[in-house]
């Protein structure tokens, strides 16, 4: 199965929206990660989904499991035994995520309708997906204009500012593929990609490629957090019994698991990294070096926010 998709990091700023009974609608800033999933085998009709989630790696992993299960068992929607979305989500979420990310959420859409949801998200995202489903030209940006028009027809003068950046671009064929990513490190944001070719006549596995992309994104995020926590411990700002210190220790264990997931790809395929494969230990070290400046800036921003209150 050829795969061409991308994961977007999105931020909407909405003015003038009021959805009765939706407390989260009071927040004009909406963050989401979005990945379209198009499934097709041979001459069968395509089955298209959109996955949204609270963070990038959860979004990518949920999409990866959808690819995996379609590849194994065919279409998901009309199975004799219904597809077990809740079990797939439980498999997607690591023990670390359960322990340290209570805000996690996911939503899967098919033709603008929700087929699975878990956790709390901003209701505006559902409006966008409904508009995208009826948008005939296939231009996602135009769907945002449709959302504005829909609110205006209801007498609400809503303005939507939209900002997005690419996190993953995935292009896979049967025996080779490429995955490009934007990695946000502690000192800089870099473009990174890996190219893989079948080394053992094993077809490219879209699910595994996407899980590795998720592992790289999650590993960079955790490495930065560990570096900051290490510096706080060194400076005496926290002690080893605090929640933050425990989280950093668990994150190190999680990184070991992520490294294993990445290395497994290299066992089945010839993998070329450009530039080199991200070194999580190096990222931790870089985060430790910039931690004093980062923490000072954070304290200044919090002070300014307090003064405004």
Structure, briefly:
This protein is of the alpha+beta class and 309 residues long.
Task: Describe this protein's structure.
The structure is a single chain. The radius of gyration is 21 Å and the shape is globular. The termini are far apart. It contains 8 helices and 9 strands. Helix 1 (56-73) runs antiparallel to helix 6, helix 4 (124-134) crosses helix 5 and helix 6 runs antiparallel to helix 7. It has helices at residues 56-73, 85-92, 95-100, 124-134, 140-153, 206-234, 243-268, 280-308; strands at 3-15, 29-39, 47-53, 106-110, 113-118, 159-172, 176-184, 189-198, 269-274. It has a 9-stranded antiparallel β-sheet with strand order 5-4-3-2-1-6-7-8-9, sandwiched between helices. The protein has 2 domains: 1-170, no CATH class; 173-309, no CATH class. The protein has 309 residues and is an alpha+beta fold.
Descriptive labels:
single chain, 309 residues, alpha+beta, 2 domains, 9 strands
Reconstruct the topology from this structure.
Elements: E1 3-15, E2 29-39, E3 47-53, H1 56-73, H2 85-92, H3 95-100, E4 106-110, E5 113-118, H4 124-134, H5 140-153, E6 159-172, E7 176-184, E8 189-198, H6 206-234, H7 243-268, E9 269-274, H8 280-308
Antiparallel strand pairs: 1-2, 1-6, 2-3, 3-4, 4-5, 6-7, 7-8, 8-9
Helix pairs in contact: 1-6, 4-5, 6-7, 6-8
Tell me the β content.
25-35%
Helix content: 40-55%
Distance between the termini: 54 Å
Write the H/E string, N to C: EEEHHHEEHHEEEHHEH
Query: Measured on Cα atoms, how large is the radius of gyration?
Result: 21 Å
Q: What characterizes the major β-sheet?
A: 9 strands, antiparallel
Strand pairing plus helix content: what structural class?
alpha+beta
**Whole-number mean pLDDT:** 89
Poorly predicted sequence stretches spanning 5 or more consecutive residues: 21-25
User: Would you count the extended β strands for me?
Assistant: 9
The outline comes out as globular
Tell me the number of structural domains: 2
What's the arrangement of strands in the largest beta sheet? 5-4-3-2-1-6-7-8-9
Number of helices: 8
